[in-house]
Design goal:
Layout lengths: L7 H8 L3 H9 L8 H13 L6 H8 L4 E6 L8 H24 L3 E6 L2 H5 L2 H7 L5 E5 L6 H8 L4 E4 L9 E5 L1 H14 L5 E3 L7 H16 L6 E2 L7 H14 L5 E3 L3 H13 L9 E3 L14 E3 L2 H16 L7 E4 L2 E3 L12
Parallel strand pairs: 1-2, 1-3, 3-4, 4-5, 5-11, 6-7, 6-8, 8-9
Antiparallel strand pairs: 10-12
Helix pairs in contact: 1-2, 1-3, 2-3, 5-13, 9-10, 11-12
Length: 349
């Protein structure tokens, strides 16, 4: 809505208040100097005269961009549409949770893909130093993402979502992937499986480390070791197939496979079929992420509350932007997903 030549001074005169009161009413902030009744009266006068403050002027006086950026890594161009679409769904749900919180406060959300060109050109620093954004939600960063160190050095309000860095003095909101894979491993053990191979998740991310730790700890608590751990680590349908081929070639005996995520598990299942091995008749398989694909076969897995993670992350970020700087580490519980890909063995205790 354009100003149509109306000034803040005219608004103040029409409303019978000072220019400072008009400024306070339009700032959106609660203040003891302005009652709700008077604020509503001023806003109604603005509507009547079709007045909207100049955005650049407002930002200059408030020292706020009223914009938060959500940084996310480039999505891989996989050869399987399910992989790319599922990644979008997870990110989109997290983003919508953040947007819900920010929209309530009148804050815009800017989506920023951290492509190689973007980070090499230091455009992330230009955004921060140019005061284009007030804070950053960082989704799915890896340990070797150098641009993250740049952002931390700038001391801009920042909250990490679904990632944690050792020694990093910033808030983070994650899901309890450790417990997710720990409990899945316990399910396999309870079903009598003792020779369990692992499709390794990426160890360059905190999620991958937590998932691997959950499996290893559950086996260790049972006095066991993995029958085999793949040399390569990763996620996705294609990787799951390649990792399974490695297990079949290198591992002498296994009755179950714990996959890095659900997509890798489906790649695993299809690779097993090529070797005339059926799930769960011959090999049991479990995943992680709660991906539901129509069909008779449903993976034993777990899901993460990504919407709530985005929502809580935005809440923490707004606290920082408003001057409250405590470091908070929040871990949401995961939800078990009951499937039919675990076969009870005859020697189940």
């Amino acid at each position: 809505m354009k100003n149509s030549g109306v000034s803040m001074r005219q608004i103040a005169a029409k409303a019978g208040v000072s220019i400072a009161s008009v400024s306070r009413a339009l700032s959106g902030k609660d203040t003891a100097f302005l009652s709700d009744t008077l604020r509503n009266h001023i806003i109604e006068v603005c509507r009547e005269l079709k007045y909207h403050p100049n955005e650049h002027t407002r930002r200059m006086f408030t020292h706020r961009a009223n914009t938060v950026a959500m940084f996310f890594p480039p999505f891989s161009k996989a050869d399987n549409d399910i992989q790319e679409n599922f990644t979008y769904v997870k990110f989109s749900n997290c983003m919508m949770g953040a947007r819900f919180t920010l929209a309530e406060k009148g804050i815009d959300l800017l989506l920023v893909e951290t492509s190689t060109t973007f980070t090499n050109d230091k455009r992330h620093l230009n955004m921060v130093r140019g005061k284009i954004i007030d804070g950053i939600l960082l989704w799915g960063a890896l340990d070797d993402d150098e641009y993250v160190n740049d952002l931390l050095d700038e001391n801009i309000p920042l909250v990490m979502l679904q990632c944690v860095r050792e020694g990093c003095k910033c808030s983070n909101v994650i899901s309890d992937d450790f417990t997710g894979t720990y409990n899945l491993t316990r399910e396999l053990l309870k079903a009598g499986h003792r020779q369990i191979a692992i499709i390794s998740p990426k160890q360059a991310s905190s999620i991958g480390r937590d998932r691997m730790k959950g499996v290893v700890n559950a086996l260790s608590d049972a006095g066991l070791e993995a029958a085999y751990i793949t040399r390569q680590s990763g996620y996705g349908y294609q990787f799951g197939g390649q990792a399974t081929a490695e297990i079949i070639e290198q591992c002498k005996s296994f009755s179950a496979i714990i996959s890095s995520n659900d997509l890798a598990a489906w790649g695993c299942i299809d690779e097993l079929k090529k070797h005339n091995l059926q799930v769960p008749r011959d090999i049991s398989v479990v995943g992680g992420d709660g991906l539901k694909i129509p069909g008779e076969l449903q993976l034993n897995s777990f899901s993460s509350p990504v919407y709530e993670i985005g929502k809580r992350g935005a809440e923490l970020l707004m606290k920082q932007i408003d001057g409250d700087h405590p470091i908070e580490n929040i871990s949401f519980p995961v939800t078990p997903v009951t499937g039919n890909t675990i076969k009870p063995l005859l020697n189940t205790p």
